[in-house]
Amino acid sequence: MILTLLLAHRRTRPPGRVVGWGSTAAVLLVGVATISDGWAPRRLYGWPFLAYGLVMVIGLIAVRRPVRKDALPGRA
Asked: Global pTM?
């Protein structure tokens, strides 16, 4: 939810980037830890964390790129 709020409001200042990348790293770490867990039934639940972590990385990289002015609706 934190990352969604940051991306929705285009918070690209350093504190927002730190929180975004920190929460992304935490989600990826939980995914890796769950997949490498010794209890086999739990391993399956790590894959959604990894997938969501990758979506978070893609979102954070997309926010860093500037928006083209001709791509915005209503502007010519």
From this structure: 0.69
